[in-house]
């Protein structure tokens, strides 16, 4: 026991591993009976049927449509569909707006992820420092934000920042400054809403992770005179690594796919499409301009980007020796 | 540590897991800032409910006040009467309810298969369930639209139920895994020795034990379905009687002048069921997330 403080300070993050109890989990994970026969497939059948019909097949269709010429004429059956090869992709990549939207999507998602994680982690640490009553208040408020549907959250935030009737402009003395008029202020407004409704997931998950760290370890670190920041950086963060990876990847995936907030808050992508992100862009191309094949091509690009993120996630998980 | 530890313990008991002792002025500051954050976070919801109860003149007022002296139900009345809101509400409830029950049952079976058995392609399947969660639902709206059209499902509630079922399954399976795993193997062996069949073990022993996990999981499928805006907008194109809540809310957005009172009242009605559901299951939710994330 006496060596604990020294160890926490001197040992590299990797030394924490055995403490998280992954070793026994590996042995417990899978049932001993190996002659399963057809039973697992029987149990899996309903899920696989649903996923094949409504997930795999549409993905195949999405890829297919992106290689065809598919506009209003083909949809109504007036003209036969024709194979375009990579024509749609050439059109897409030749369009400066696509690159602008792609850049905006990446920057916007990155800003959302960083802000959400910073706020969520900071509040999770804060939760461990306070007594039950304020903790309950913060938890309840966060759960409320978490539970709010994206569409109602969007309408409420737009109303809060309304130039005429909103309390925020009055409070900040901004007069009739319109948040949705400028490109960056509109993105900032959407970012605030996204962070508001997604930080609770990070906060609750990281808080649960911190609670699982044995108190003695933190006690030892603080007895050794480590500062709060040092404790977070050198003790808590390494131990929370698996959880932090999960929340980061989840946030990237969610924030990259933001649709409802942009659509509702900026009125379908902002003035002259200044607030478009890939998701909304694809939707507008397909259902507003009837350019279904272009929309599908954008969808394929998104799918590939998210697939890349997922592969990174799987690699990270595997490197940690995680058992599936 | 031993000597230091004892003196420490005399003065104050060892902190519980994961919590640090903090000196009093710091703790008070921390508590004050936590309360401040709580107020800021809760404020949009408060403002939503408040605006829903404000009389028309006060909502559209340039002199917005954080209280109202004459609460009125006018906005709610407009919502319920003019827009056939009850119908939309029932539709939303029906869609979300069906998805929750169906995905819970299907995911329970699938989670049991991947945790209780070892078979070929098991890991591949698990990775596929993980990858499936990342698929951008919105991108698939285009092919799904044609799929629904070809099967004559446009303008029906089925066109909302089926895609949501598919999209909530992968996460549900992934999350339930932890709960099924937590049920000891010995229980299954004991049931087997006592002569219970596999089916009997599944439904009469495993199912009740995993039920809390099912509830936690169902929150997510409920929310994603209840919140759906895109499918409702895209697949229900002409038959208004099949619309769900989000569409009813958008009616109050008008090009010239938004009816903010109506929007806020409709938003309140739409948020309430999720909020209630959330508060009811929040404990299980937190532990469930811990399980899904940690194992």
TrEMBL record, chain A:
Is 4Fe-4S included in the keywords of this UniProt record? no
Compositional bias (Low complexity) spans? 8-23
**Which residue stretches belong to region Disordered?**
1-31
UniProtKB keywords? Cell membrane, Membrane, Transmembrane, Transmembrane helix, Transport
Family (UniProt): Belongs to the binding-protein-dependent transport system permease family.
Domain named ABC transmembrane type-1 is located at: 102-313
Pfam families documented for this protein: BPD_transp_1
Q: A GO BP term, please?
A: transmembrane transport
Residues spanning the membrane: 41-60, 98-126, 138-161, 181-210, 231-253, 292-314
Query: Where is it predominantly found?
Result: membrane
**Localization (cell):** Cell membrane
Organism (species): Streptomyces candidus
Instruction: Provide the Gene Ontology terms for cellular component.
Output: plasma membrane
What is the protein's given name?
Answer: N,N'-diacetylchitobiose transport system permease protein
- How is the protein disposed in the membrane? Multi-pass membrane protein
From TrEMBL, chain B:
- Single Gene Ontology BP term? transmembrane transport
Q: How the protein sits in the membrane?
A: Multi-pass membrane protein
Per the record, GO CC terms? Answer: plasma membrane
Q: Matching CDD domains, A to Z?
A: TM_PBP2 (cd06261)
Transmembrane helix is among the record's keywords: yes
Annotated ABC transmembrane type-1 domain ranges read 89-281
Q: Which InterPro entries match?
A: BP-dep_ABC_trans_perm (IPR050901), MetI-like (IPR000515), MetI-like_sf (IPR035906)
Claim: Transmembrane is one of the keywords in the record: yes
Location(s) in or outside the cell: Cell membrane
Residue ranges spanning the membrane: these are 28-49, 88-113, 125-148, 160-180, 201-223, 260-281
Cite the entry's keywords alphabetically.
Cell membrane, Membrane, Transmembrane, Transmembrane helix, Transport
Pfam family membership, one: BPD_transp_1
Family recorded in the similarity comment = Belongs to the binding-protein-dependent transport system permease family.
The molecule here is called N,N'-diacetylchitobiose transport system permease protein
User: Which organism was this protein described from?
Assistant: Streptomyces candidus
